[in-house]
Amino acid sequence: MNRTRVSPVREQSTDAKPPDEPPDEPPDEPGGAVAGSRLARRRRWTVVAACSAAVLSAGGVYAAQWVQSPAEAAARTRAPKPSVITAPVVRQVMRNTIVFRGSFSDGRTVSAAPTSVAVTQPAAQQPHALLITGVFARAGQRVGAAKPLVEYDARPVFALPGTLPMYRDLTMGEEGKDVAQLQKALHSLGWVTGSDPSGRFGVGTAAAVKRLYAAMGYAAPVTTSADTTSATEQSGSATQGTESAASRRSEPKATTMLPASEVVFVPSLPARVVSVPVHMGDAVKGPVVTLARGDMTLTGFLDPSERGLISTGMKADIFSEATGAHTGGTVASVGALVTPGSGLVTPGSGKDEPDDSPAGPQTDSAYVPVRIEGSGNWDKRFADQDVRVTITAAATSRAVTAVPEAAVAAGADARTTVTVVTASGAQRVVPVTTGVSADGLVQVTAARGHTLRAGDRVVVGR
Questions:
Q1: Residue 178 near residue 167 (C-beta atoms within 8 A)
Q2: Can you give the pTM of this predicted structure?
């Protein structure tokens, strides 16, 4: 009996997922992983291939720029077409510009170096040490008369107008030119000296000195002296017969005086302070203040070959490269030739005065000193500066036709010519005669039958 095997039929699930639900995750099977790996590799190779193609394309474009044909190479190395360099013809006054170095100096100076301290009360004891107790001035400052500059041991050092140096203390009864200078200085400040005759330090002069110190805020210095008078002046006519020849000494008394350690005379005020080499508390061992006896002086050092181009009255331009200061001046004098080893000559004087002149240039070459004055007091920024001096001098009295020196050519026949380039580019040769030259230009006059006008272009190089 035949038996038929019936295979079991699997029942299909009727639980279908709704269409809006996401599909199930792919099964984690080996076959799916292999397929994803192959797809990623293909993508990577595609990107690499594309990048390589881009690089090769860019390299080809760059390399193509360096590839040239033989014709192109020859064209690039061929010499350029010849051309000319031109400059305009001008019509102007010919001027020479002379540039040389100059140096500012203080000229003569005067210093105050106290050696003693004046007292303000009779029989007062003088201090043993001299110490700086005040500094009121600074280098470069301009100071007037009767103004304390430095103070030592509470005593002032000040300036008064005058040319004679203060070489002694001035006390009651002193006579001389220095007393007359003091009286003149006191009068200029408004303090009269009473009935004292000129050149004699009397009661009126002493009173004026006392007022001078009071105006500065200090007590006037005094000195103690014994006054000797005749008996006739003291006893009267009653004792004239018996004491006519006798004298007696009165009690010592204090009188106002002017100490040499406290005042310095300067020819003109205000004066410029050259240096104040002390500070508060320093011991006095030398000059405490130095003043210029006049304003700064400027001396230029001119090349002897240019001596004929400079004359008095010419305007000068002065410039300090170090400070940037700039000003004008006027040539005051042109001195004699100075040669190495001969010493310095004061401009315009012909005499050697090394103490009153600035040091010459640091060179072994000869020079001509040129003294230059300013319109007023020099700017203090020029003090002790080495400067550039520029002077422009006219070489012709009127406007002339001129061309650059490089435009003039000399032929084998000794003729001088210039070559004019026309607007169309054509060139024509113009014979000329030359005149004065200045600042790279030369005066020219066209030969008869030829023209040369301002604005024409002439050849100066090829």
A1: yes
A2: 0.54
Q: Say what the alpha-carbon torsion angle 245, 251, 255, 259 is, to the nearest 10 degrees.
A: 90
Q: Distance from CA of residue 76 to its chain's centroid? A: 53
CB 229 within 8 A of CB 218: no
What's the pLDDT at 231? 35
To which residue do tokens 């007393």 refer?
179
Q: How far apart are CA 117 and CA 128, in angstroms?
A: 9
How far apart are alpha carbons 458 and 446 in whole angstroms? 13
Structure tokens at 147: 């103004």
Q: Is 63 exposed, middle or buried (0-12, 13-18, 19+ CB in 10 A)?
A: exposed
The 10s digit of each residue's pLDDT in 6-27 is: 444 444 444 444 445 445 444 5
Neighbours of 228 (CB within 10 A): 9
Predicted confidence band at 376 (pLDDT cuts at 50, 70, 90)? confident
- Domain 86-92+398-461 sits in CATH at 2.40.420.20
Fold match flag (86-92+398-461 vs 96-106+294-394): no
State whether residue 249 is helix, strand or coil.
strand
Q: Distance (Å, rounded) from C-alpha 391 to C-alpha 330? A: 9
- Asked if residue 99 has pLDDT above 80, the reply is yes
Architecture per CATH, domain 96-106+294-394, reads as Beta Barrel (2.40)
Mean pLDDT of the chain: 81
Long-range CB contacts for residues 309-314, cutoff 8 Å, separation at least 24: 309/96, 309/98, 309/391, 309/393, 310/98, 310/334, 310/368, 310/370, 310/391, 310/393, 311/393, 314/391, 314/393
In three-state secondary structure terms, 177 is helix
Q: Prior bond to 267 cis, omega within 30?
A: no
